[in-house]
Amino acid sequence: MKNILKYTFVILAVGFVSCEPEFDTPVTDEGFYSSGTADLSKYVSLGNSLTAGYADGALYITGQENSYPNIMAEQFAFAGGGEFTQPLMNDNIGGLLLNGAQITENRFVLAVGPNGNPGPIRLVGTPTTDITNRLSGPFNNMGVPGAKSFHLVAPGYGNVAGVLAGAANPYFARFASSETATVIGDAAAQSPTFFSLWIGNNDILSYATSGGLGVDQAGNFDPSTYGGNDITDPNVFASVYSQQVEALTASGAKGVLVNIPEVTSIPYFTTVPTKAIPLDAATAGALNAQFAAYNTQVLPGLVGIGFITPEEAALRMINFSAGQNFPIMTDDDLTDLTAILQGPPFSLPASLATLLGQLRQVKSDDLIVLPASSVLGTTPDPSNPQGVIGVSIPLSDQFVLAVSEQARVTTASAAYNATIQALAGAKGLAFVDAKSALARVANGGIVYDGGVLTSQFVTGGAFSLDGVHPTPRGYAYTANLIIKAINDTYNATIPMVHIGNYATITLANN
């Protein structure tokens, strides 16, 4: 068996493009820009990691400085905007400490590994941001990495004592006004004249990035019972989201609401090809011989006794051919056959029954997640060179987002987006269709003066090295989308930014 997997990131071009501003009128001309019917003097932004400026798998100073709210605030300054403060990290390493012990990982940088292939690695170094050192606020950027919609209204979400137990958020613990504070309460207490709200991505994202290992909680209205990777019930989302909008608009503030993109359009789900296993004819033939009895005897036998349907049997068929192949995987959505395969008439050994219990081959509509690139085609046991992940060892379900799991994500996000758009209309707020905007980036890209912004991993310019969060250039594109919506809704003339002046990914040699 040879050439099981050769999967590397080909870096075509990585650089920072600097171009002239795209505006004919200098932004220093007094009186040219206006906030229209909006009052930008006290801008507060709420959301999760996207709002905070999270990138490259961590929160760090440079990312925060290039967060879309900070970029927007700089442009707001030309139209009456006031000071904009953020709970900055202590360094550009990115990790967090709790009483000196590191509790989150450092950021990714792009480097060339020992095998000569470029790829993301964690930056080496000791972070200096300890969450027990609470910052004195308030802060205009209330973005909290990891927050789901219902977390913004949860008392104690910033209590340091609850962090290790998962009852509180370490990022909010740094700047919460008290141990019992809520994110929305701290935001509303600032009496903002203008706000942005972008929340709900994490209500589906963790389910998707875990390969659907969580639970779709549709019908469960008690988020205190949810697991970390679960999908939030749409009614729960609608309830807490309405509370947030009501709190922010209670004093007459205007603002902008941003909907939820299709998470499966991001590089985390589109970088690893589904046909990721290259095989020669001899190896493919040997593998098919090993699975012949499973395909022709075991599966028909299970159909015959009524344990699975013919459709499920077809889904479980394993077949390899010369060339690129779909890897095999375990699918937790399938009926677990382990117990029945150990009994008559099959009487398979326990190890084999376990292997075949929920086995199937990846399909073209499945999505293999980015971390799978580090395990596909590897041999975890050096003494057994035939034990190859994706070929003779199934790829774990956590590395694949199946079609059925994608459907759950899509259904939930569609319901969230209906709530967001309806509230924007009812309250007369600006609305940004981030879902359509990301689709344009993913399908052909966005042309700007200096290049094209795409969702291609590493080289596309839009997404950082975690495959989920934008680069500074991607955040600048986001800022422009929101500024345009504000201008259109409130008859404002806030200048947009030239996204080519913002960086992409970070290089390092260590």
From TrEMBL:
Source species, domain of life: Bacteria
GO molecular function: hydrolase activity, acting on ester bonds
InterPro entries, per database record: SGNH_hydro_sf (IPR036514)
Protein name as annotated: G-D-S-L family lipolytic protein
The species this protein was found in: Aequorivita lipolytica
Lineage: Bacteria, Pseudomonadati, Bacteroidota, Flavobacteriia, Flavobacteriales
